[in-house]
Description:
Blueprint: H1 2-32, E1 34-36, H2 38-47, E2 51-54, H3 58-63, E3 65-66, E4 70-71, E5 90-93, H4 97-109, E6 117-120, E7 131-132
Parallel strand pairs: 1-6, 2-4, 2-5, 5-6
Antiparallel strand pairs: 3-7
Helix pairs in contact: 1-4
Pfam family, one: Rhodanese
Domain Rhodanese: 46-133
Transmembrane segments: 6-27
Amino acid sequence: xxxxxxxxxxxxxxxxxxxxxxxxxxxxxxxxxxxxxxxxxxxxxxxxxxxxxxxxxxxxxxxxxxxxxxxxxxxxxxxxxxxxxxxxxxxxxxxxxxxxxxxxxxxxxxxxxxxxxxxxxxxxxxxxxxxxx
Length: 133
């Protein structure tokens, strides 16, 4: 019986952790830019002359990425982004929304307006548009 209670407590803690993580990412994301679903993200990319940034690590990017994306991994985002223009829309995506939100936070601190930042809800796997494989 004690084992069952321990397993239930661990499960409850995990559920609470996941909920608070989701809530934090959603709240932070909305304060840093626009969180958009995959279909809207694809439409905006087709309409805008924006910059598409893949914030995943180099290896996943090399395996497959959205057509036209530049690789700028979130882990070392401060390096090598000299070509990023703050006056044009910036479309961010990663493995999940959290990595895009973190990068959007860095960009906001550098003065990129909130209305210039778009983040793909659900991450790369949700995108159904053209990809390079």
